[in-house]
Amino acid sequence: MSVRARLAPTPSGFLHWGNLLNFTLTWVHARRAGGQLALRIDDLDAQRARPEYVHDIFATLEWLGFDWDEGPQTAEDFQLRFTQSARTEEYRRWLKKFPSYGCGCSRQDVRARTTALYDGHCRELGLAVTQRRWRSDLPENDVVLWRKDDVPAYHLVSLVEDLRLGTTLIVRGEDLRESSEAQRALASRLGAEGQSFLQAHFIHHPLLLDEAGEKMSKSAGSAALKTWREQGHTASETFQELGRRAGWKKDVTSLASALIHL
């Protein structure tokens, strides 16, 4: 199987060191395999997406020397031809391919009842349209597919976009292992249409943690690569710092070797 991978940042904040770890792993694996690499910007959360965060993605990739074969080449190109917000009706058609039910539970409601992704609380309630988000009717993976604010949810969009790209290699953080399983369960309901996703190879890498030992999130502070870049650091210094933070060796060559053998 030929390798087709993707970089899939979200423009909900400035990129951070955890993003760099994922980008490096993805780029090295794809290029070592002689595969194709796409840039896919997941901007479905319009309330949090900002133009400055989209520009930061391109500025960071250019600064670090990452290249890609498919997808937007500039922030302007992204807005004109690749924004996911323009494909809402297409995602709605995909929603109809999955068995689903309405749900009125907030994240706080779910956390108060269970440590699992969801406990099936609303499966048999038949909620009115104005009260619900859509969940997949898969007892072991009933994740949200469509949000209450009439926006497609992450699991649906990510699966559809990977099917669109024909992705065969998906590199994600360890925290998204359950998401991968949920999306595989969804793909299995699509028959032949979902086979490319079911045959894809998944790599779930360890997370980089912040100084408090927590998972890194989008940030405008010291964790942001933008801050490091504006301090004048080179790409070489950046990869060496990534190696230090990840516990790898000193130089870029040994870093790449360590990455490819994770």
Task: Give a quick set of tags describing it.
7 strands; Rossmann fold; alpha/beta; 11 helices; 262 residues
How does this structure look, described?
The chain has helices at residues 17-32, 51-64, 75-81, 88-95, 107-113, 154-165, 177-188, 195-198, 225-230, 235-246, 252-260, and strands at 4-7, 36-39, 100-103, 133-136, 144-146, 169-173, 201-205. By secondary structure, it is of the alpha/beta class. It has 2 domains: 4-86 and 154-260, 3-Layer(aba) Sandwich (Rossmann fold); 90-146, 3-Layer(aba) Sandwich (Rossmann fold). It has a 3-stranded antiparallel β-sheet. Helix 6 packs across helix 7. The mean pLDDT is 87.
The secondary-structure class comes to: alpha/beta
Tally of DSSP helical segments: 11
* CATH fold annotation of the largest domain: Rossmann fold
Instruction: List how many beta strands DSSP finds.
Output: 7
Return residue spans where pLDDT drops below 50 for at least 5 consecutive residues. none
State the end-to-end CA separation: 20 Å
What would CATH call the architecture of the largest domain? Answer: 3-Layer(aba) Sandwich
Helical residues, percent: 40-55%
Instruction: State the CATH class of the largest domain.
Output: Alpha Beta
